[in-house]
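REQUEST
  id: r-88c1
  op: predict_structure
  target: NLPA lipoprotein
  payload:
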Amino acid sequence: MQFSKILLGALLASGLYASDKTITVGASPVPHAEILEEVVKPILEKEGYKLDVKIFNDYVIPNLAVENGELDANYFQGLPYMKSFNKDKGTHIVPTVGVHVEPMGAYSKKIKSLSELKNGDIIAISNNAADSTRSINLLEKAGIVKAKEGEYKSPLDIIENPKNLKFKEMESAQTLRSLDDVALAFINVNYALDVGLKPTKDALILEDKDSPYTNYVATKAGNENNPKIKALDKAILTPEVKDFIVKRYQGAVIPSF
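RESPONSE
  id: r-88c1
  status: 200
  body:
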């Protein structure tokens, strides 16, 4: 008994015992971190867990951090990006629960409608396969270009481009910063919201509620049944979270559950 008390004291002092009840999650600032901090954290606290949210402004580091065990989970991505990332990086990231859709949109400081696009205009587009596909699908839906059929699409897959549009590929986070320099930029909702853009008002074209790009909580394969991940999943799929998303984001973010 005395040995057990000594061992417990040592664990408490080292922080190892406490860490069993700490869930560390990587997330984009908006809306993911807001949802976690403002709604999920209090729910988890009632269950005896501490939620530690680490904020990231890119899509690569939080997946690598889950893979190497620095994070228990992350919350920022859809299945197409996850699948592409695992293939390219050799990682083993898997989804647990789907939470919301963030409609991809196209924004501009130079034109007020897609009909104003001129011959040779430059369009900023993400260089990751999932977001590039979403952007090209939106341009096809608007009748601006036509691309070959396929799971993923890049500018190289465009077969009809009447306006001879030029595509500038870059990291997803960089498309927002290109707004001053291009005619049109495809920007993820989380980045748009972070600078005060209102997708339902400011986007010239926007994915609708039928978008297949649900954002998931994700963890490393084999960790899905960890009690901490189960607690996180349960806390995030609650009426409180759904209500928060609906009221806070006014259609710019749409619950998927």
